[in-house]
């Protein structure tokens, strides 16, 4: 479908979609209404949407003998003022529904920065906020959020930055919401959360069709029925979260830093491990190394272990267990070597430290103990070890 064709279709169904796409005029402006911050250390992506509500009604002239002041002074009628309770209701509806989701190992945090301007329609020249008129008098109302013309290549089901809907301030077709949350079909309980989805860059997940009874809503292929399909729904499908995150261009399943790697020398011991997804669960640890002590004597170390971590909410801890073998290069273990077993406690300290403490160590010594001629910390494989963990995308 061409851009021109797409624009015509969007305008034709603007009332039913709850989303308004129009032509940018001189009095229109695209604000940076949404900030997206990615914290790769704590694995959080935060969306902050900036909205200013203003009343959709005109002030009246109050000239009452009981009025304390000058007769004829302009005073707002009650529906013209947006109270703090109304502002809080809208913010709460948005944040309660949109929070509590994840993208891979990242928490998706949604913040609604909702302010009120009761002085009337503010200037459209707002560089960092979306202006939304709030109608508190309507008995039937279709809330909508105004968006700029779609970017080239936009598709409703696309997950790229070019598919992102961009909210815009416009005098031609300003964004307008209703309070209480009503619509053509009655109460739309979660209409503010739905409209905030548009503010953050999402399209409606339905398209309008017809049957023998009239107009119907059809689910767009590639979408799931959730809040962006029905303003009464209180759930957000994971595919919608994925689309929201990926349309920012800041994260993808190929770039999230959810995985962990150990690749570290501790004296002559070389430790390696890769843990996918999160620090919780099983880490498979391998260790190897060679140490030339001179005189043609080279110690060889091999081994493996398992670390199992659990997140209690306050700490990421668990047990670990390892088997290792040391020998002299070229000499069988049965002649000169040691088979050992270690176990103990592990703790992962965010963002990038893994501590191992040995609580039990035992070994079988053979005819010649490779450690007999050694002293100092390098001779003790059971000492506490601290790893510096690399956090990135490895799996």
Please tell me about this protein's structure.
With 395 residues, the chain is mainly β. It has 2 domains: 3-246, no CATH class; 259-392. It has helices at residues 3-12, 14-17, 84-98, 191-199, 238-246, and strands spanning 19-21, 34-39, 44-55, 60-61, 74-75, 101-103, 106-116, 130-135, 145-147, 175-178, 182-183, 186-187, 206-211, 214-219, 259-266, 269-275, 281-294, 297-311, 316-328, 337-349, 353-365, 385-388, 390-392. A 9-stranded antiparallel β-sheet has the order 22-21-20-19-18-17-16-15-23, with no helix packed on it. The protein is elongated, with a radius of gyration of 31 Å. Mean pLDDT is 82; it is low at 1-17, 19-27, 59-77 and 369-379.
Outline = elongated
The domain count comes to: 2
C-alpha-based Rg, rounded: 31 Å
Q: By helix and strand content, what is the structural category?
A: mainly beta
Arrangement of strands in the largest sheet: 22-21-20-19-18-17-16-15-23
Distance between the termini: 37 Å
């Amino acid at each position: 479908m061409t851009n021109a064709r797409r624009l015509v279709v969007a305008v034709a169904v603007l009332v039913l979609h709850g989303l308004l796409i129009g032509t940018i005029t001189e009095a229109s402006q695209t604000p940076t209404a949404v900030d997206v911050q990615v914290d790769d250390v704590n694995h959080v992506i935060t969306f902050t949407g900036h909205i200013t509500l203003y009343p959709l009604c005109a002030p009246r002239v109050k000239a009452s003998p009981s009025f304390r002041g000058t007769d004829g002074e302009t005073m707002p009628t009650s529906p013209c003022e947006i109270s703090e309770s109304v502002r809080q209701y809208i913010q709460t509806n948005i944040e309660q529904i949109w929070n509590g989701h994840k993208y891979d190992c990242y928490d998706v945090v949604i913040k609604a920065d909702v302010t009120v301007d009761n002085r009337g329609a503010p200037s459209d020249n707002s560089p960092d906020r979306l202006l939304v008129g709030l109608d508190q008098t309507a008995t039937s109302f279709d809330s909508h959020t105004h968006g700029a013309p779609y970017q080239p290549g936009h598709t409703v089901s696309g997950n790229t930055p070019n598919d992102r809907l961009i909210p815009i301030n416009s005098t031609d077709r300003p964004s307008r919401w209703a309070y209480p949350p009503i619509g053509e079909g009655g109460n739309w309980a979660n209409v503010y959360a739905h409209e905030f989805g548009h503010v953050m860059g999402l399209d409606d997940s339905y398209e309008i069709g017809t049957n023998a009874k009239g107009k119907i809503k059809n689910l767009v292929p590639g979408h799931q029925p959730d809040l962006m399909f029905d303003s009464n729904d209180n759930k957000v499908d994971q595919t919608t979260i994925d689309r929201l995150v990926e349309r920012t261009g800041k994260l993808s399943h190929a770039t999230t830093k959810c995985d962990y790697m150990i690749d570290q020398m501790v004296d002559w011991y070389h430790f390696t491990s890769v843990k996918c997804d999160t620090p919780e669960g099983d880490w498979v640890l391998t260790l190897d190394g060679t140490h030339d002590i001179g005189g043609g004597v080279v110690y060889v170390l091999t081994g493996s272990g398992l670390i199992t971590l659990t997140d209690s909410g306050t700490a990421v801890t668990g047990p670990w267990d390892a088997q290792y073998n040391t020998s002299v290069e070229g000499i069988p273990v049965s002649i000169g070597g040691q088979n050992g077993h270690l176990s103990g406690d592990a703790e992962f300290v965010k963002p990038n430290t893994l501590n191992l403490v040995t609580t039990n160590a035992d070994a079988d010594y053979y005819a010649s103990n490779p450690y007999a001629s050694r002293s100092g910390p390098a001779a003790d494989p059971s000492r506490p070890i601290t790893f510096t963990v690399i956090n990135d995308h490895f799996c």
